[in-house]
Fold this protein.
Amino acid sequence: MALQEKYKQLIDAAKINNVADLQIEEKDGVLNITGVAHTGKVKDDLWVIYDKIDPDFRAGDLILDINVTPAVPGSKIKVSTENTDLNIRKGPGTDQPVVGRAVRNDIISLISQSNEQWWLVIFLNDGKVFSIGIPFISFICSN
């Protein structure tokens, strides 16, 4: 548990950035943190935090194994909101009109990424194309 305290800022950042399949395990004096980030920037930001906690990575008490999601057309993603439905918007951005809502655990198929914050997706049930925010999805598989 002591290592989880030491790397709390890193663990919290991984959670806040919705790192998918996040696993944190402390064993034999080494903390293993694994997961899948939705962008390379999130992964890079986690490494910057790691460098601040352990400059030059000399302590040897952490294995940070964060991959970047394979954001390829056809990847299946799941709505991963906590307590509310997810706003589905006509286009990328909170200034775009809400055209519907998706409930937690809905499965959708990725078409393309429109920018670092929004994804263009297609809903499998009706084939309509809309945008949703990256922080509210997690990847479950590709093709």
Q: What stands out?
A: The mean pLDDT is 83. The radius of gyration is 17 Å. The longest strand covers residues 20-27.
